[in-house]
Amino acid sequence: MANTLNGIDLFATVVEAGSFAQAAERLHLTRSAVGKGVARLELRLGVQLFHRTTRSQSLTEEGALFYRHCLRALEEVRLGEAALASNKLTLNGRLKVSMPVLFGQQCVAPILLALAKAHPGLALELSFSDRKVDLVEEGMDLVIRNAEPPDSLDLAARRLGEHGMTLCASPAYLAERGEPVTLAELPEHECIAYLRQGRVLSWWWQEAEAWREVQPRGRLQMDDLNAITQAAIAGFGLAWLPTWLARPHLERGELRELLARLPGRRYPINALWPHGPHLPLKTRLAIDWLASRLSEQLASVNVPGHQPQ
C-alpha cells in the first residue's frame, strides 16, 4: 500500500499547480526533485503522465484518467485529516530539533523557547551541532542549516531567511598593520580562518559584477565562530563573521568593519524535515514561528562583550 501511494500527492500537486516549478514551491522541494519524483511514478506505472515541452506541460490521456482517481483517494485522506484535526485543540508532544552550535544558541533557540512557553504541552529536545545530521536515522523532527537545501525527495525545506558576512578587525590590529582597502591587499594581512569539517572556508565578495574568492591565510584556524570573534577582538587578525555575530562588537567599538563598499556573499537559512503527506502540527508551528521571527531575532542578538584577561 505504501508503494502504491508513493508519489500520488506530488503528482496531484503538479497538476493543480500547473507547472513543476510552482509545485516545487508549494511542496518546499527543488524543481529537480519534483521532476525526478514524477519520472519515478511514470516508471512504476509504465505510462507517460505529462506531455512536456520547454515552455509548457499538459496531462496525457492516461495522466488525466489517473488524476481523476487520485482526486478521489486524496479527498478521503483529507477528510480523515480533518477529522483528526478537530481533536487537536492544544499543541503537545516532543519536538526534536538540530541546529548549528552558535547560530542555534543565539538565534534559533530563543524563538523555540518562546514557542514552548506559549504552549506548555510542548517539550523540546534541542541538539547543537555543526555536523551533518541524518534526520530519519536520528529521529529529528526538524533541522536548521545555513546552506542551500539538498536536492532530495526525502526532505522538504522552507527558506527562513538569510544572513550576510562582514570582514572586520580590532582597532589595535588596524593601528599596527593598516587597513586593507582592496581585496588584493588581504594576502598581506593575518587572517583568522574558519574550519568546517576540516576544510578552510573561503571568503567571497562581489567586485566588478563578478564573485571573487579569497582563501584566508594566517597562523590561526578555528572551527568555532565565537573563538574567532574573540581572537579578532584580541588583535590576532582579520575575521570574516556573520553580520548578526559581528554587529554587537562593531557597535561597542571592539571591532571595525572593512571593505564595506563590496557586497559580500549572503547565505540562506533553511528548515529541513522528512518529506511526507502529513506534517505534524508541532513541526508546522515551529517552522512558522521561525519564519516569522528569525529576521527580528538576527537584528537583536547581543552577544556578551569581550572580557580582557
What does this molecule look like?
There is one protein chain. The protein has 309 residues and is of the alpha+beta class. Helices cover 42% and strands 23% of the residues. The chain has 11 helices and 15 strands. Helix 2 packs across helix 3, helix 2 crosses helix 4 and helix 6 packs across helix 11.
The unreliable regions are none
Shape: elongated
Q: Which percent bin holds the helix content?
A: 40-55%
Characterize the largest beta sheet: strand count, sense, and whether it forms a barrel.
Answer: 5 strands, mixed
Pfam families: HTH_1 (PF00126), LysR_substrate (PF03466)
Domain HTH lysR-type: 1-60
GO molecular function: DNA-binding transcription factor activity; sequence-specific DNA binding
Protein name: Transcriptional regulator
Annotation keywords:
alpha+beta, single chain, 11 helices, five-stranded mixed sheet, 15 strands, about 300 residues, three-stranded antiparallel sheet
